[in-house]
Write a structure and sequence with these properties.
Length: about 325
């Protein structure tokens, strides 16, 4: 959109001249991209996006220097990529992904597919519907535009997303949460994380839908969303690598690396996250389980220290 406005201004609102200006600018940016393609992108930002409490995404956008990583254009580009990843379904021949207990609900979003996707311009209010951009621009084009301004190699390194089923099941709710630290806000920074909670009724005679749609249901949904965000903050605040001791590879690691074993500092508690989570659910007639988590840092050695896939999600509750 910045390039489009610039083109119209330079061409005195002549559409044909503006389109020619855009084409020349993109060609110039592509040439610059080819020149810097081999440069290391060891700096950057982790950006997260939560839409209407139902969809969440996290992306890692790399650049060359910390100076550019703090640049407003770079950060705005990262926010746009994260919002687009949250809004779109991960491409699949089988249709929209349906989360299932026992299977990691967080999906890897193929980078190439995301790069070719149109940028979705999102409103500032999470409660408002997404607003499409007036001039179609792909993620790749937005990166080229930012590269033309920053002069650095910019690279979308990884992306993940989750979408709660619609319509919701009567027996289970999935609640996403996200948080980022080390940036100008809580949606981008040096470290970011997303978590997915599942909530079921502790009374087999009363499905979770009866709690959500019954007296106090709005409060329960708000509390669940706040809890998901708090747990995401917890995961980001500690060097978290696993959800529970039952996670593959979690045996023998320090307690601070296991989410459910940590002191729940983000809730002002010294007790373990697992204990607080169990009590929280009991007070509301629900059973809440952490079924998915990712924690990324800009300094991660990609390919060696990424969060393992959680293969036994149903065992990760309190």
């Amino acid at each position: 959109m910045t390039l489009a406005r610039e083109a119209l201004s330079k061409s005195n609102n002549d559409l044909d001249r503006a389109l020619s200006y855009v084409e020349r600018s993109l060609s110039s940016s592509e040439a610059k991209a080819a020149k810097v393609a081999g440069r290391s992108t060891h700096e950057g930002t982790i950006a997260v996006s939560l839409l209407s409490g139902k969809r969440v995404a996290m992306i890692h956008l790399g650049c060359e220097t910390d100076f550019v990583a703090r640049n407003d254009m770079f950060l705005n580009t990262a926010r746009g990529v994260a919002g687009t990843a949250a809004f779109l379904d991960v491409p699949s021949d089988d249709g929209p992904h349906e989360p299932q207990l026992g299977v990691d609900p967080i999906q890897e979003f193929p980078v190439e597919a995301l790069l070719s996707a149109p940028v979705i311009a999102l409103p500032s209010s999470d409660s408002s519907p997404p607003i499409p951009v007036h001039a179609p621009t792909t993620i790749q084009q937005s990166l080229l535009s930012a590269l033309g301004t920053t002069g650095e190699n910019l690279k979308l390194l990884r992306a993940v997303s989750f979408a709660a089923p619609f319509p919701s099941s009567s027996t289970i709710r999935f609640i996403p949460g996200c948080f980022a630290h080390g940036g100008p806000g809580d949606t981008e920074g040096r470290v970011g994380g997303i978590v997915i909670l599942s909530a079921t009724s502790s009374d087999p005679e009363k499905p979770i839908s009866s709690l959500v749609h019954g007296p106090g249901g709005d409060d329960l949904e708000r509390d669940l969303s706040k809890l998901a965000r708090t747990i995401a903050r917890q995961a980001v605040g500690f060097p978290t690598r696993f959800i529970s001791r039952k996670s593959p590879g979690a045996q023998g690691v320090e307690a601070e690396e296991v989410l459910l074993e940590q002191s729940f500092m983000m809730m002002g508690e010294e007790r373990r996250v697992a204990e607080v989570l169990e009590e929280w659910g009991e007070e509301r007639g629900a059973r809440v389980i952490v079924v998915g988590m990712r924690r990324w840092a800009v300094k991660d050695a990609l390919g060696t220290t990424e969060m393992p896939m959680e293969e036994a999600a149903t065992e990760h509750g309190a």
